[in-house]
């Protein structure tokens, strides 16, 4: 959360002249409502089922940049689809930076608590090893301009030609 996935994904797609997709926005469009409502009505498991279906479908598309929600790595099938169908970039950011970037965002159900720092600490403890296990590139985004992050990703991709797409 707050690592810049959507912002950097949009910029990267423009730089590479590829279509941009955000799995969270796709889930909202399909559900006809926002993610907090899905969490309230269906719980996290209901949301994760929707997320899994969206990632399976979106990761089959060619020539796209896909931004996923921070919890997408929790399901092994998501990690497998992302790894086998594309190049996975882990945008890593500190908890302090996450708190700063998400402080006023009410569209993050997991952070609607009295102690968002504790939530973020628990999330990163669970998710960081999963992110690291499935990424092709890890980039730290703290205090960095999104354009600099995009430039680093583009340099990496140029060294990786051709991009993975085995499905």
TrEMBL record:
Localization of this protein: Cytoplasm
Catalysis: reaction(s): shikimate + ATP = 3-phosphoshikimate + ADP + H(+)
Single GO term (MF): shikimate kinase activity
Keyword list, A-Z: Amino-acid biosynthesis, Aromatic amino acid biosynthesis, ATP-binding, Cytoplasm, Kinase, Magnesium, Metal-binding, Nucleotide-binding, Transferase
The keyword Nucleotide-binding belongs to this UniProt entry's keyword annotation: yes
Sites where the protein binds substrate: 24, 48, 70, 127
Main subcellular location: cytoplasm
Cofactor comment: Binds 1 Mg(2+) ion per subunit.
Annotated pathway: Metabolic intermediate biosynthesis; chorismate biosynthesis; chorismate from D-erythrose 4-phosphate and phosphoenolpyruvate: step 5/7
Residues annotated to bind Mg(2+): 6
Documented EC number(s): 2.7.1.71
Residues at which ATP binds: 2-7, 108, 144
The keyword Magnesium is assigned to this record: yes
Protein family (similarity comment): Belongs to the shikimate kinase family.
Physiological role: Catalyzes the specific phosphorylation of the 3-hydroxyl group of shikimic acid using ATP as a cosubstrate.
Subunit structure as annotated in this protein's UniProt entry: Monomer.
NCBIfam families, alphabetized: PRK05057.1
Protein name: Shikimate kinase
Organism name: Marinobacterium weihaiense
Gene it is expressed from: aroK
